[in-house]
Design a protein that fits this description.
By secondary structure, the protein is of the alpha+beta class. It has one domain (8-141): Sufe protein. Chain: A. 45% of the residues lie in helices and 18% in strands. It contains five helices and three strands, in the order H-E-E-E-H-H-H-H. A three-stranded antiparallel beta sheet has the order 1-2-3, with helices on one face. A hairpin with a 2-residue loop joins strand 2 (39-48) and strand 3. Helix 1 (8-15) crosses helix 2 (63-76), helix 2 (63-76) runs parallel beside helix 5 (120-142) and helix 3 packs antiparallel against helix 5 (120-142). The longest helix has 23 residues, at 120-142. The protein is globular. The protein starts with 7 loop residues before the first helix and ends with a helix.
Length: 146
C-alpha cells in the first residue's frame, strides 16, 4: 500500500458515494461533527432484530470523512450490531497502527484508509462516521436511539 491516502478506493467512494442520501425507513439516527474542520454528518440506520438492514448518511465534509463513512456503511449493512461494533473497534485500532494483517482483511475496503494515521490532522476526519456509528449503536442497544 502506498503512503498516499488519496488512493483509488477513497477517491471512488468520495466521487461516487453509494450511501449519501436520506433514509426514510431509518429506525435510528445520530449526528456527528468534527469541530476541528467543520465536517458534519447524520448517520441513518435501519436496524431490525439486531441486524443493520440499511444505512445512509447526509451532511458535508472533506473527501476523507465522506469516503470513510460511505465505505463504513458498505461494510456494515447486513451485519449484526455486534459485528458492526467489532468492525468499528478494528477500524480504530487500524488508525492507531495496532492491527494484524488478518484483522485488516476483515475491514475490506476500509483498509484503504490505513495510512491516514500518518496524517494526524486527517485522523478525526476518517473516524467521524465510525465514531458516530459507535454512539448510534450504543443508543440503539440501550433503547435511546431516535
Amino acid at each position: 500500500m502506498t503512503d498516499n491516502i488519496y488512493n483509488e478506493v477513497l477517491l471512488d467512494h468520495n466521487l461516487h458515494p453509494l450511501h449519501l442520501h436520506e433514509l426514510p425507513c431509518a429506525s435510528c439516527t445520530c449526528a456527528g461533527l468534527n469541530p476541528t474542520c467543520g465536517d458534519q454528518l447524520t448517520l441513518h440506520l435501519n436496524i431490525e432484530n439486531g441486524i443493520i438492514t440499511d444505512g445512509a448518511f447526509t451532511g458535508v465534509g472533506c473527501a476523507v470523512s465522506q469516503a470513510s463513512t460511505d465505505i463504513m456503511l458498505e461494510l456494515i449493512i447486513g451485519k449484526s450490531v455486534d459485528e458492526a461494533l467489532h468492525l468499528k473497534e478494528l477500524f480504530g485500532r487500524m488508525i492507531g497502527s495496532a492491527i494484524t494483517d488478518e484483522e485488516l482483511e476483515e475491514l475490506e475496503e476500509a483498509g484503504a484508509l490505513q495510512n491516514i494515521s500518518k496524517m494526524p490532522a486527517r485522523v478525526k476526519c476518517a473516524q467521524l462516521g465510525w465514531n458516530t456509528l459507535g454512539r448510534l449503536l450504543d443508543e440503539a442497544v440501550s433503547g435511546g436511539a431516535q
